[in-house]
Design brief:
Strand content: 25-35%
Distance between the termini: 24 Å
Shape: globular
Number of helices: 2
Number of domains: 1
CATH topology: Rossmann fold
Number of strands: 4
Order of helices and strands: EEHEEH
CATH class: Alpha Beta
Bound molecules: adenosine-5'-triphosphate, magnesium ion
CATH superfamily: P-loop containing nucleotide triphosphate hydrolases
């Protein structure tokens, strides 16, 4: 799976940026996402697995726009969050 993140922003209520203008290309392979507490790791993961929408910017998964191909992209995912939950539907 190839993931391309373009100009991604996530602003939570109150106006603080959890993710600010993130540009990142993740090619096929195994990766870890490291960073200090509050860096935005969980926010980014929630966006990548379609549990949360970004405030702006774009994510392409295998060249498919995440915002337009949620169903197909969800069918390729496995995700075990820190706090366990299911997709709403
Ligand atoms: N629901 C929310 N409402 C408002 N602010 C939030 C919310 N969730 C996270 N934040 C803020 O967004 C920033 C990023 O948080 P996030 O949980 O994505 O970081 P993290 O890298 O996963 O941290 P940790 O290592 O503690 O898990 C932090 O400043 C956090 O306080
Ligand atoms: Mg986290």
């Amino acid at each position: 799976m190839q993931i391309k993140i373009e100009n991604l922003n996530k602003v939570y209520k109150g106006g603080s940026y959890a993710i600010k203008n993130l540009n990142l290309e993740i090619p096929n392979g195994m990766f870890g996402l490291l960073g200090p507490n509050g860096a935005g790791k969980s926010t980014l993961m929630r966006i990548l697995v379609t549990l949360m929408k970004p405030s702006s910017g774009r994510v392409l998964v295998n060249d498919m726009d995440l915002a337009k191909h949620r169903r197909e992209i969800r069918s390729m995912l496995g995700y075990l969050p820190q706090d366990f939950s299911f997709f709403r539907n």
